[in-house]
Amino acid sequence: MTQDRQASGSAPIVHLSKLNKHYGELHVLKDIDLTVTPGEVVVIIGASGSGKSTLIRCVNGLEEFQQGELEVDGNTLLPNGKATKALQKIRTEVGMVFQQFNLFPHLSVLDNVVLAPMKVRGWDRDRAEATAQRLLARVGIGDQAGKYPSQLSGGQQQRVALARALAMEPRLMLFDEPTSALDPEMIGEVLDAMRELANEGMTMMIVTHEMGFAREVADRVIFIDKGRIAEQGRPEQIFDSPQQAPTRSFLSRVLKH
Amino acid sequence: MDVTFQFNWQAAFASLPHLVAGIPYTLLISFGGLAIGFFIGILVGLLRISRTAWLRWPAIIYIEIFRGTPVLVQVLFIFYGLPQLLGGPINALVAGIAAIAVNSGAYISEIVRGGVQSIERGQSEAGLSLGLSRGQAFRYVIWPQAFRRMIPPLGNQGIISIKDTSLFSVIGVGELVRQGQIYIATTFTALEVYLMVALLYLVITLSLSLALRLLERKGLVGQ
C-alpha cells in the first residue's frame, strides 16, 4: 500500500509557500513550504502546540495567515482572510473531520449528511439521501441513519462525521486529530474507515498521534517542531532513521509506550 | 379595635365577569408586544454580536436605554410624551403594545445573544468546512440549536412582560388591573377583587409555563 504516489508528477492540489501565521505575539507557523499531490496521504506529526492543527486549519481557511501564499485546487487564498469567493470554493472541495466530531446535534444522522449536498451543491433530497445511505453503509452505520448523534458512540459519531464530509465528494480530506477524543476501543474502527479511504486513492492530510497508523498509511510524514517543518520523508525514513535531533527526541517520547 | 371583617366569597365571584373583560386586553398587549419584541430582539441581538462596530454600537445603546429605564416610564413617555412630538394622540392600547415591544425587545436581544454565543465554535466551523456560507451555517446549524436554548429565558421574559402590563392601568387601557379598579370604585371590595385579579394573572402565567414546558420537552429530541 505504499506505492510512491508523490512521484506521479501531476499538478499539486495543495501548495503552501512561505506561509506565516501569528497569534498576536505568538509566531505559530514559520515559513511553511508544502506541496501535496492528488492521491497523496500526508501525515503531520509533532508535539502539542507545535502548530500542526493550525497548519491544516489554514488549508480550508478556518485559520487566517499573515504572510505567504496558499493555493488549494487552483484557488488562491490571500493573507489576512481576503478572497472569500475562493475560500467558499475551497471549502466546497475540501472535507474536514474534527477531533470533537462536531456533528449537528439537532439533526438526525441522515440529515447531518444531506445538509451540505442539498444546500451547497443544490442536490434534491432523493439524490442526497441515496448518497448519504451509501456512505453511511460504507462506514458501517447504515442502520443508524434515523438516530440522533447523542444516541451514538464516539466512534460511530466520528464515522458519521466522515460520511458527512465525503457526501460533498471532496477532492481533499483534512483530519484534525480524528481519534484523540475517542475511547481506546473505538479508535480502530475510525482508523479502519480512514485506511479504506486512503486505499481508494483519496488525497488526505492527517494530523494524528497514532504513529502505527501513520507508518502504515502515509506516503509522507511531516514532522513539525515549533511552527516549522523540521523534517519530512517516507514513513520508514522518519520513524526508523530520523535525521534531526527534535524529530529523534519527539519520536523517542511517543514511541516508547 | 374590633376586627369584624370577613372575606366575602360571593363578592369575589361576582367580580369575575367584570374582571374577565380585561383579559383580552392583557393578552393582546402582552402577546402583541412580545411578538414585536421578539423580532426586535432577534434583529438587535444579532447586531449586538456583529463584528462590525457601527452595527454593534446602536444595538448596545438600544439595549442599555430600554433595559435601563422602567417600563412604566416608557409607557408614560409613549402615551403622554410622544403625542406632543407627533401632534396627535396615541391609542392607549397601541401605546401599551409599543411599550412591551421596545422593553421586551431589549431583554430578548440579550437572550438571543446569549443563545447564539452559547453554541460551540466547532458547530459553525463544521458547517463552514462543508461549504455552507456564513448565512447558511447560521440558519441551518447555529440558530436551531440556539433557539432551543433560548426557550426557558424567553418564557421567563414572557411572564415578566405579562405582569408588566398591569402597570398600564395608569394610561387607562382596560386591562385586568384597570377592570379591577373600576369594579372596586363602586363595590369597595378591594380584598376580594385584587385576590381575583391575582388569581387571573396566575392562570395566564401558569398556562404559559405549561405550554413552554411542553415545547421544551418536544425540543429535547436530538440534544
Explain how this protein is built.
The complex is a heterodimer of chains A (257) and B (223). Residues 1-8 of chain A have low confidence and may be disordered. The longest helix of chain A has 16 residues, at 184-199. Chain A has a 6-stranded mixed sheet, sandwiched between helices. Chain A has a 4-stranded antiparallel sheet with strand order 2-1-4-5. Chain A starts with 13 loop residues before the first strand and ends with a helix. In chain A, a hairpin with a 2-residue loop joins strand 1 (14-23) and strand 2. Chain A has 257 residues and is α/β, with parallel strands linked by helices. Chain A has helices spanning 52-59, 84-93, 109-119, 125-138, 154-166, 184-199, 211-217, 235-240, 245-255; strands at 14-23, 26-36, 41-45, 67-72, 75-77, 94-97, 172-176, 203-207, 220-225, 228-233. With 223 residues, chain B is mainly α. In chain B, 80% of the residues lie in helices and 0% in strands. Chain B is built from 9 helices and no strands. Chain B has helices spanning 9-20, 23-48, 53-68, 71-86, 92-117, 121-129, 134-164, 176-187, 190-219. The termini of chain B are far apart. The mean pLDDT of chain B is 93. The interface between A and B is medium-sized, with 32 and 21 residues.
